[in-house]
Write a structure and sequence with these properties.
By secondary structure, this protein is α+β, with helices and mostly antiparallel strands. The chain has four domains: about 220 residues, Beta Polymerase, domain 2; about 130 residues, Four Helix Bundle (Hemerythrin (Met), subunit A) (Up-down Bundle); about 140 residues, no CATH class; about 220 residues, no CATH class. It has 41 helices and 15 strands. Helix 1 crosses helix 4, helix 3 packs antiparallel against helix 4 and helix 13 packs across helix 15. The longest helix is centred in the middle third of the chain and has 31 residues. The relative contact order is 0.04.
């Protein structure tokens, strides 16, 4: 049976728009899809089908390869110009339009023909949401509205159902709704999400007068007069979204929903269209809402963010909006970034990303706060009388609770005002008005060398840090507006700089500001219980100027080939005098920047129970003033890395190192004498075991060598005393308890000593998925091994009491040989996909000076679950005796430090022995890394 040509069928039921999508820009998209040719082939194939199932199959068979070819052509466009997204997102929209239109033609012209539709059977199909706006990434949803004049008819229901099945068979992710015009008005009035969707509706195909009627009634009935209501809803929605997604400085941002992402841009589109009935942002320039340079910033940012999103979709082969670490590397490569200047391509890419996100966030905030101010109603007079605005200096007004510049020309006549306004904002507690922020951003060139070198500029800047109690607020706004980088040009390279690792949660500039916020929190007394040492140091008195400036500059050298601490110290030597510090203060700041990692490294990578560690640290610090400054700086630096980085474990280590070093500096190095500490430890044990008889107590205090007494707290000494009492040669005793002070579970072992005992115990713990964060092992004079391990689970938390019995059972089975550690570890010893993009070069060092008794082997490499077992097993096979291990983890990087002797109880002085062990350890690391990727 011969069917009518699609054009005549379309005319019969009014299905086609007056301008079909392929006629909009045929030349632009000619290489993507030959629509007339495809339509002809489609109708030829469906004419031969005998029933609806066959028609559906024929349609899908014809459109699928055409869609694949079209998508490939668009992807090729992006590949050729990976940072130019504008034509690509329109091309995906156009391709989708053609598919929807062709499916409509087949369904209404072949499957459910209706040559003479009644008025109630007319239907229009509209694109809504992002698809309606015409912005589509490769795997964006296809949101459709099936619009009918009245309640849906049987014919319309059949058409909708058949269309959806075909579109689903084409693997399109279709979001759909079927509504009347009245439904749209009613639901839009109740729900702002639906109202926003309606705002972006675009007619595709069908009965166009119906779509025109909807558009007119939306503007005349629903949108008109509700502008304030809509703006308020969008502002609330924006704030809630930012809280949920996190700040734009988070290192795995959401391109769509995150702060400074595409949704912020879309919010602007929505509001602009709602207020001015235009979604053309350029129109906002013509009517004075945006300045021309702001418009150009938005165009560049929008194009960049859409390019990121499109490349991200293609890299992931699915709709994903989160720029995870592994995707960052691939997207950076797709967009043409390269390793250069000592930084990886992904770091350059992410710095560009964060700078564009910052621009979007700032300009969106200016726009929205301007609207918020314009729409805000004045409070009643009585309320204004009781809540008067803060009194400002004569140059300023308060408008809508924001600091407003009275006379812009007078303001700019004095360059110093570009700093004074931040001081005034802190003094009054007011936010800065959006017009003032615009003025500042547009005149950063006024902050020149002459202005920076004035005494007044130095005073204002230091006062911002030291005087008003909330320096981070001023610094963050100055940074976002470009003032901080203009005033300290050396700060500019680290603005929006990402550190491509799992340890740092923020960009370098935001980390710096976070550190200063933590310092101000300590000063305010808000962390006295959590940080007693740092709080006491500040309370007793310290040079705050040195501390704040050192924190501001401590990471300023990052991102270059040179060690950032060394380069940072050189930069600090130049910058600190410009900020008004005297020679002695400059020298101290320079020293703090140069050695800002020293205390953290000593505490986390060395055995602070070894007197040599404290002695070497004390010699490096030299004075109590430096010790105090470095301690507070270290605490702020670690806390500023990100949520959860600071914990009781680090607090305990830093606190212990500080107190021991302070004692050494005040009372002399002899305070660290081994014998003195051993005698004190034995005395403490006797007091704790006063219920023991004298003979048993004498046996316990005489059975251990000196390192045992200096290396453990009395609580561990008590546990081992109980475990060793009446122990049999073949017995393995285990004690497992929560150590709240260290945020870890303490596991104590007592058993007959033998070679490789440390590796065996590490294997037992690895077999149950435990992460060892610290360990000590000692051999008693009567041949028993006493080992203590502090462990955490995969979430860096201690094992709770409910899990300890199973933990004990698995450890016992492994030690008895019932479970083979290597086999048990294999399933756990994997690196997650999103973490494989990190490069951590392996570094192994041998230090014979850091301990009087042991050689210190430091292994700095890529972390994974079975690493410690592999390293200790390799050492055991090489007849290396491990006395203790200190584990410091920094995201994907781990530094395992071992205090060792050779089989004769000597240090590893021989270069040949060092090279041999180095080679074996590297081989074990490489083999484990291969296994982890399988």
């Amino acid at each position: 049976m011969t069917q009518p040509h699609p054009a005549s069928a379309a005319q019969a039921s009014d299905p086609l728009p007056s301008s079909t999508p392929e006629r909009v820009a045929p030349d632009t998209f000619a290489d993507i899809l030959d629509v007339p040719k495809l339509r002809s082939a489609l109708w030829q194939s469906v004419e031969e089908a005998q029933d609806e199932r066959a028609i559906r199959a024929a349609t899908v068979a014809c459109l699928n390869p055409a869609q694949a070819d079209g998508r490939a052509a668009i992807a090729a466009r992006l590949s050729a110009a990976p940072r130019d997204a504008a034509p690509v997102i329109k091309a995906y929209t156009w391709l989708t339009d053609q598919l929807v239109t062709l499916v409509w033609e087949v369904v209404t012209g072949r499957m459910h023909r209706n040559p003479n539709p009644t008025e109630g059977e007319r239907m229009a199909i509209l694109a809504v949401g992002g698809y309606g706006r015409g912005d589509m990434a490769p795997y964006s949803d296809v949101d459709l509205l099936f619009l009918t004049p009245y309640k849906i008819t049987a014919w319309a229901e059949s058409v909708i159902e058949s269309m959806l099945y075909i579109l689903w068979d084409l693997k399109l992710k279709v979001g759909h709704s079927s509504r009347t015009i009245q439904d749209c008005l009613r639901l839009g009035a109740e729900d702002f999400t639906i109202r926003t969707t309606m705002l972006e509706q675009r007619f595709l195909v069908g009965y166009e007068p119906l779509a025109q009627d909807l558009d007119a009634r939306l503007w005349n009935t629903l949108f008109k007069g509700t502008e304030s209501e809509f703006i308020e809803a969008k502002l609330i929605e924006r704030d809630e979204r930012h809280i949920k997604q996190g700040q734009r400085y988070m290192v795995e941002p959401n391109v769509k929903e995150g702060k400074g992402g595409l949704r912020d841009l879309q919010s602007l589109f929505w509001i602009a269209k709602y207020l001015h009935r235009t979604d053309d942002i350029e129109e906002l320039v013509r009517i004075g809402v945006f300045h021309p340079e702001e418009y150009q910033t938005f165009v560049k940012a929008a194009n960049f963010l859409w390019a990121v999103r499109c490349n991200l979709h293609l890299a992931a082969r699915r709709a994903t909006e989160q720029l995870t670490f592994d995707m960052q590397v691939e997207v950076a490569d797709r967009m043409g970034y390269a390793d250069t200047g000592g930084r990886r391509a992904v770091e350059w890419f992410m710095q560009d990303y964060f700078r564009h996100a910052t621009a979007v966030g700032d300009l969106t905030r200016i726009f929205l706060t301007s609207l918020e101010a314009a729409e805000q109603k004045q409070p009643p007079l009585l309320m204004r009388l009781f809540k008067r605005a803060p009194r400002t200096r004569p140059d300023y007004d308060v408008i809508n609770n924001r600091l407003y510049i009275k006379d812009e020309s007078a303001f700019l006549a004095d360059k110093m005002n570009l700093l004074r306004i931040f001081e005034e904002a802190l003094r009054t507690g007011l936010l800065i008005h959006s017009d003032a922020m615009r003025l500042i951003s547009a005149n950063l060139h006024l902050i020149d060398a002459d202005m920076r070198d004035t005494k007044e500029a130095k005073r204002i800047f230091l006062d911002l840090l030291l005087k008003h109690g909330n320096p981070e607020r001023a610094l963050r706004r100055m940074n976002e507006l470009g003032v901080l980088a203009a005033f300290i040009p050396e700060f500019e390279p680290i603005v929006a700089m990402m550190q491509f690792n799992m340890y740092h949660h923020y960009t370098v500039d935001e980390h710096t500001i976070q550190c200063i916020w933590h310092l101000s929190e300590i000063e305010h007394g808000n962390l006295t219980e959590e940080l007693p040492v740092a709080s006491t140091i500040l309370k007793e008195g310290i040079n705050r100027k040195i501390l704040y400036v050192a924190l501001l500059l401590h990471d300023i050298g990052k991102g270059r080939d040179e060690d950032h601490s060394v380069l940072g110290a050189k930069i600090a030597r130049k910058v600190a005098p410009r900020l008004g510090l005297n020679k002695q203060e400059v020298a101290t700041v320079e020293w703090l920047v140069r050695y800002h990692l020293l205390m953290s490294d000593m505490a986390q990578k060395r055995d602070i129970a070894d007197p040599r560690t404290v002695r070497d640290f004390a010699k490096a610090v030299q004075t109590k003033e430096r010790l105090d400054l470095l301690c507070v700086l270290t605490v702020c630096d670690i806390r500023g890395v990100g949520p959860g980085t600071w914990n009781n474990w680090k607090a305990t280590l830093i606190r212990a190192l500080y107190r021991q070093t302070r004692s050494a500096l005040e009372d002399g190095m002899e305070a660290l004498n081994r014998e003195n500490r051993g005698a004190e430890a034995k005395k403490a044990l006797r007091e704790a075991l006063s219920h023991w008889d004298a003979k048993a107590l004498r046996t316990e205090t005489s059975r251990h060598y000196p390192p045992y007494w200096q290396g453990l707290h009395v609580t561990a000494h008590v546990i081992f005393a109980e475990l060793l009492r009446d122990i049999d040669d073949n017995e393995i005793k285990v004690d497992i308890h929560l150590d709240e002070d260290r945020d870890a579970t303490r596991v104590c072992f007592a058993l007959t000593d033998h070679p490789g005992i440390f590796s065996r115990l590490a294997g037992a713990l690895a077999s149950v998925g435990a992460n060892v964060v610290d360990a000590r092992t000692f051999t008693s004079k009567d041949g028993y091994a006493t080992a203590v391990f502090w462990i955490q689970d995969g979430d860096d938390s201690p094992y709770d009491n409910a899990r300890i019995p199973r933990l004990r059972d698995m450890i016992s089975k492994t030690l008895r040989g019932q479970v083979v550690a290597g086999d048990a570890i294999k399933p756990r010893d994997k690196i997650k996909k999103r973490e494989r993009a990190f490069r951590v070069p392996t570094s192994i060092t041998f230090d014979n000076e850091g301990s009087e008794i042991y050689t210190i082997i430091e292994v700095d490499t890529r972390d994974r679950p079975g690493l410690l077992y592999d390293l200790t097993r390799t050492m055991a096979n090489a007849n290396v005796y491990i006395a203790s291990a200190v584990i410091a983890t920094y995201g994907e990087q781990v530094v395992d430090t071992f205090y060792v002797k050779d089989m004769f109880g000597l240090k590893f002085y021989s270069e040949a022995k060092q090279k041999s062990l180095d080679s074996k350890l590297r081989e074990a690391i490489a083999e484990g890394a291969r296994r982890a990727k399988e």
